[in-house]
Structure formats: C-alpha cells, structure tokens
Design brief:
By secondary structure, the chain is an alpha+beta fold. It is about 50% helix and about 10% strand. The protein has helices spanning about 5-10, 35-45, 45-55, 75-85, 95-105, 110-120, 130, 135-145, 160-180, 185-205, 220-240, 255-260, 270-300, 305-320, 330-345, 375-380, 425-440, and strands at about 60-65, 65-70, 90, 155-160, 355, 360, 365, 370-375, 440-445, 455, 460, 465-470. A hairpin with a 2-residue loop joins strand 6 (about 360) and strand 7 (about 365). The protein is globular and about 65 Å long.
C-alpha cells in the first residue's frame, strides 16, 4: 500500500483565486443537461465512476438536469462526509422513495428523530452478543440445506450456487426472524420476489418519478406480485405469533422487535413498524449475504490454493463439529477470505446517495446545500493506493497480523451512524455457512468456467448463472 502516493494524490487543488476554498471541483463538462452522463451511469455505473476518478480525481462534480452531483472517491473524503458531516446529510429522496415502496417507513428509509428512535430500538437485537445467540439457528439452516445440495447418493455434481445460497440465507433469515423452517415452495417464491424487487428498484432509481404500480407498464405486474408475495409471507408469520398463547417462548428477531422498548419513554414499535422492520431485515439480510457467499464460492473455486488453506484451518479448528460464535476468531484465514471477498465484490457496491442539507466543506472544497453526494465502495476497494494489486484475491491482507486498511478504504457495510445494522449478523452467518460448506465439500470450477462479470442491481451480482462442481469430502 502506498500511503505516500495517497497523500500526494489528495493534495487539495489550490484555489484558482488564491483565497478560501474553491467552489467547483473538476468534472465532466455539462452538455445536454448532463443526460449523456445519466445514460452512461445507467449503462455501466461502476465503470463510469471509475473513469471519473481516473480523469478528474477524488472529488468530482457533474450536473444532471437540475442536480449538482459530487462523487467522493477517497477514504478521507468519504469519512469527512459520512462521519464528520453525518448530521448535515439526508439520503437522496429518489432512492428513499423507491425503497419506501418495499420497506415502508423502516430504519433503512427514515431520517431524523424517527430514524434515531427506530435505530435505538433495533440495535440491541443486532448487538454482537445477541447475534451470537442466533448461531445455532444458522447452523441448523446450513446443515439442512447443504445436506440437500447434491442429489441423494451422489458424491459430486454441478450445483447452481445462486439457488443454493439464496435458499440457505432465506432459511437463515426465516429461522432467525420467526423461528420458522421454510418449505421449498416458500423459499422459491420468496427468492423470486426479492430478486424481482431488486431489479425493479434499480430500474426505478433512474426514473425521475415512480409511476403508480397499478399502471399496465412493463415490470409493474411482476413488482405487484412480488410485493404481494413477500408482504403475505411476513404478515402470516407476525399474525401467527400474535395469536400464540405464549409468544415469548421464542428467542428470535421478531420476539426482540415485539419486546423492544424505547429507554427514553418506554414506547414500543407500532404494528406497522414491526412489519416494516421485518420486511427490511428479510430483504436486506437475505440477498446481501447470499450475494457475498456466491462471490466467495466462485473466488475459492478459482483459487484452489486458498481453498486448501481454508480446508486445513477449518478441519484443525473444528475437528468435524459445528461452528459457533466463539470460533470466528479461531478461523483467521476464513474470516480474511470473506473480508477480501467483500472488498473485491461489495454486495452494496454504491451506497445510497446523500443530499446536503446545508453547505459543507469536504477537503478544500465548498459543497453547497442541496448537492447530491455519491459514494462507491467498489472504487475505493479497487484503488491501488489503499490495496496493492487491487484486482488480486489476496485474503492475507485481512489477517490479524497484517496492517489494517486505511480507515474508510474498506466499507462494505458503509460507515458513520448509518452503518449496516446487520453487520455482525452477516459476518457470523457467512462464517458459519462458509465453514460448514468447507467441512463438507470442495468447490471446483467446471469446464467451461463461468465468466461471471459483476452487474449492479441493488446488490452486485454476477451477470450470468454461476454453477460450480461440488465434491463431497468425507466418506459420510
Ligand atoms: C454481507 C451482508 C451485508 C452487507 C454487505 C450490507 C451492507 C449494508 C450497507 C453498505 C449499508 C449502508 C448503506 C448506506 O450507507 O447507504 C447497510 C445498511 C443496512 N443494513 Fe446491511 N448489509 C448486509 C447484511 C445485512 C443484514 C444481515 C441485515 C439485517 C438482518 C442488514 C440490515 C441493514 C439495515 C436495516 C440497514 C439500514 C441501517 C440504517 O440506515 O440505519 N444488512 N447494509
């Protein structure tokens, strides 16, 4: 990592007038109201933002119709915005409008005092200590799904990894939310629904407004069906719990949400809030982890030498038993391989854009009130100033003895007060699932190997199917 280069690159551009901060960072010229840039973003968001940094540096501006948009492409600028100036930012209204249709007024969507209250109420359910208690539910889900990964009696076979991890993480979230073991039909329809909603959201994000869902437009029917299916699933589980004589015998996320009380006034989450938080945990918690595990499995199949190291570590530490929260620290190579996967393929490759609610200063630039700020972990994670040979899969960067990444350079879970509430949950889930998969199977690239180029929907997914050869390890 070349930190000297980094500081050189960050040397602020001198103010052309020699007094105070300059007001206009560099950026592409505005032509045709910035519509060519909007088209380029829609076509290849990550490629476009990477090019912006190459041509114009770490802080670039552009005008798109009436919006002034700024891309923050260094760890320092990102922290200045999301940590130091968090209270002067809200999330970009268009993104929120799109997400609100799916997640309602949940913690992912709200702002100000309402968000603070919801976040306060939810935090205990997602604390590392609490999350550790879900490990055995995670193991049960992984055990059942992995036992059915290959057809009965077969020792190896080509497996569609998206379907496997989608099923597995769906099972994990249903068990941890509702103590419910999902049927194959439920999993299939919920997977389809979450995928459909992601694709629709990504499309709608680039429209100036969302047209009503009842209109007979392409994609609207699928969206209506997907929403109906997910809402129905969540509502059925909550109703079933409310109808139980002993609802408190459960120790799952729903029980935590129902029992949560605000310290300041003793208030609980309203029924709608409970519903919305379940929707958000379900969608955010299932698709992101599935995507991360999908990339991880592909990287291991491409790097058998790393996979071998992980097999050895898992075998030595676990000796065939189920993993638990206490094992996370004892599996440094496994943890490092997951973190390196999140670096190369951050499931949330672009954070939700922010809007400034007053003038702020970033580096030596004055950013006006009302500006849109874009933050793209993908670009930070692949910047050679922070990660040498950034395109390479090198888990050793994240081993405990390695120099930690520059603060703000590795942000798969975001940073600042709105950092992912489910990060401990996700890391434990991924560790448990990955360890159990390694105990049972070798991951081998088939011929021809899947090309799997990253494509941004709401999460960063491979652009085509990823099937790998799974070979059973033990004689069992
Ligand atoms: C590998 C898995 C995951 C990744 C990469 C991830 C990533 C992220 C990121 C980047 C943000 C911040 C977005 C921004 O600042 O614009 C976020 C927020 C959030 N995540 Fe996650 N997430 C993951 C798993 C989970 C899980 C398992 C849950 C819940 C069960 C969850 C629930 C949430 C919620 C509720 C927020 C909004 C928090 C707020 O605004 O206060 N995530 N996530």
């Amino acid at each position: 990592m070349n930190r000297m280069n980094a500081s050189l690159h960050l040397t602020p551009t001198p103010d052309p007038r020699g007094a105070g901060p300059a007001t206009d960072p560099p950026g592409p010229p505005t032509r045709w109201l910035g519509l060519p840039q909007l088209r380029a973003l829609r076509r290849d968001y990550l490629g476009f933002v990477t090019g912006l940094q190459r041509e114009h540096g770490d802080l670039t501006r552009m005008r798109i119709v009436h919006e002034r948009a700024y891309d923050l492409l260094s760890p320092e600028l990102v922290r200045e915005a999301l940590v130091d100036n968090a209270e002067h930012l809200i999330r970009w209204e268009r993104g929120i409008a799109v997400f609100e249709q799916v997640f309602g007024r949940s913690v992912l969507v709200t702002e100000g005092p309402l968000w603070q209250r919801q976040r306060r109420l939810l935090m205990p359910a997602f604390s590392p200590k609490r999350v550790a208690g879900y490990a055995s539910l995670m193991c049960q889900a992984a055990e059942e799904t992995l036992a059915q990964a290959l057809p009965p009696g077969q020792r190896q076979g080509l497996v569609a990894m998206e379907a496997l991890f989608s099923r597995l993480t769906m099972d994990v979230i249903l068990r941890t939310l509702f103590s419910h073991r999902a049927s194959a039909d439920e999993v299939q329809s919920a997977s389809w629904a979450t995928q459909t909603l992601s694709e629709t959201a990504m499309r709608e994000m680039f429209h100036p407004m969302t047209l009503p869902d009842w209109l007979p437009l392409p994609g609207k029917r699928a969206k209506r069906q997907a929403l109906r299916s997910l809402r129905g699933l969540i509502a059925r589980h909550i109703e079933a719990r409310r109808g139980q004589t002993q609802p408190d015998r459960h120790d799952d996320l729903l029980a935590r949400l129902l029992a949560a009380r605000d310290e300041s006034d003793g208030s609980a989450l309203s029924p709608t809030e409970v519903f919305d938080q379940c929707m958000v945990s379900f969608q955010a918690g299932h698709e992101t982890s599935a995507t991360a595990l999908l990339w991880w499995s592909l990287l291991l199949a491409r790097h058998p030498e790393v996979a071998q190291r992980l097999h050895t570590e898992v075998d030595q530490v676990l000796q065939g038993r189920l993993p638990g929260p206490q094992d996370v620290a004892a599996l440094p190579w496994l943890g490092a391989s997951l973190k390196e996967t999140l670096r190369l393929y951050p499931p949330v490759a672009a954070l939700m854009s922010r809007r400034t609610v007053r003038d702020i200063r970033l580096g030596h630039w004055q950013i006006p009130r009302g500006a849109v700020l874009r933050i793209t972990p993908w670009v930070l994670h692949r910047d050679p100033r922070w990660f040498s040979e950034p395109e390479d899969f090198r888990p050793e960067r994240f081993l405990p003895e390695a120099e930690p990444p520059v603060r703000g350079a590795w942000i798969p879970f975001g940073v600042g007060p709105r950092v992912c509430i489910g990060q401990h949950f996700a890391l434990l889930e991924m560790t448990v699932v990955a360890a159990m998969l390694l105990q049972r199977f070798r991951l081998v690239l088939p011929e021809p190997a899947p090309q799997a180029l990253p494509k941004m929907n709401v999460t960063l997914r491979p652009d085509g199917p990823v099937s790998l050869l799974l070979q059973a390890r033990s004689a069992g």
